[in-house]
Amino acid sequence: MVSGLRAVLDSLRWPDTPEAASAARTWLENRRGARVTVVLRGQPDRWDRVRADLLVAEGDIAESADLAGADLAGGLIGAGLAYADANEADSLCRPGLRLVEAAARARGLGLWGAARPAAGDGPALREKVGHFVVAEGRIRHVGERGARTYLDFAARGTDGLTVTVSKRTWRMMRARGLSAASLEGRRVRVRGLLEVRRGPTLEVALDGLETLEETDRPEVDPEGERGLRR
User: Fold this and answer.
1) Which of 53, 177, 205, 225 is the most buried (most CB within 10 A)?
2) What CATH number is attached to the domain comprising 158?
3) At which of 113, 147, 176 does a domain end?
4) Count of beta carbons in the 10 Å neighbourhood of residue 184
5) Radius of gyration of the chain (CA)
6) CA separation for the pair 151, 139 (Å, rounded)
7) Cα dihedral angle (32, 38, 41, 46), rounded to 10 degrees?
């Protein structure tokens, strides 16, 4: 930027595979030269970067005129080229981006065009180790411990995902009405960086777990989606 400010798009997880990252980069390159309004979100990180929404100026004459008045994060997510994710924060600054993502997922755009491993499919998940994943499944068991809570998606002794929730995050989830009793047997969507310990494992933030009955909604129309991006 002319000001020297280094910004990263807020509420967005950049894809971590070469092909997907290249597609997202090309999408942004095609909008190079557009004038943007920068809306800062919080304090700079350890690399002196600030999270921000970048809104393409209304009436800007650019090859990317299709995005005039919209924001770049919403555009990437709406095209299926990035995930809506809170990253290091507890929750999304703009929860509406999850609906934009849902529309892209319903259409099978970009990242959502490839099959995703189920939370109970350990062998398929192991192929995604080290990558950010979005997985769906039914929670088979919830184990509350002193420091962490464990959500198991496979029967004991079988290979499947275990989601860990820190004590602090679990406390916030409980404040939202979630509990071991309400989650056991429930279908959810989880997202995070996949590791392997005894089995496939990921740790979720507050907004990293979605109960499907509450978050799966009909695809939004283009005008409604455009409003949610802003």
Assistant:
1) 53
2) 2.40.50.140
3) 113
4) 14
5) 19
6) 6
7) 60
